[in-house]
């Protein structure tokens, strides 16, 4: 079957452009760089890198930062909450933050009880 070259030329360009576009789309999903169309993570007026930092109480912290929760317990503020269980006995529990939700002591799952022995988290 004979097809006129003038008819094939525009079709070849369309196929070429489609192939090039598919390479760009595929490569953008594979690359580990940030996408320019993604919103930049912010903590108040500061920009931060969510692969290395978090926003906790309007402060940028490194992911491996720890804090004290009660007299004998540490927790990671990027991933956990320190919650008082009772104010009279000064009993504390560490609760897990739920990703994508404004975590609160009343609704977050308990990670560990700080009154128990061996409640210090392992080093990262």
TrEMBL record:
Molecular function as annotated in GO: signaling receptor binding
Leader sequence residues: 1-26
Compartments, as annotated in UniProt: Secreted
Domain of life where this protein originates: Eukaryota
Coiled-coil ranges from the UniProt annotation: none
Any Gene Ontology CC annotation: extracellular space
Keywords: Secreted, Signal
Family: Belongs to the IGFL family.
Name used for this protein in its record: IGF like family member 3
Originating organism: Loxodonta africana
């Amino acid at each position: 079957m004979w097809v006129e070259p003038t008819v094939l030329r525009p079709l070849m360009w369309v196929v070429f452009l489609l192939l090039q576009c598919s390479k760009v789309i595929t490569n953008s999903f594979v690359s580990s760089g940030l996408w320019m169309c993604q919103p930049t993570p912010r903590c108040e007026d500061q920009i931060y890198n969510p692969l290395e930092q978090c926003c906790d109480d309007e402060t940028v912290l490194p992911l491996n930062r720890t804090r004290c929760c009660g007299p004998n317990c540490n927790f990671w503020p990027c991933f956990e909450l320190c919650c008082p269980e009772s104010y009279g006995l000064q009993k504390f529990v560490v609760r897990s933050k739920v990703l994508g939700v404004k975590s609160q002591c009343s609704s977050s799952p308990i990670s560990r009880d700080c009154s128990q022995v061996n409640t210090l988290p392992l080093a990262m």
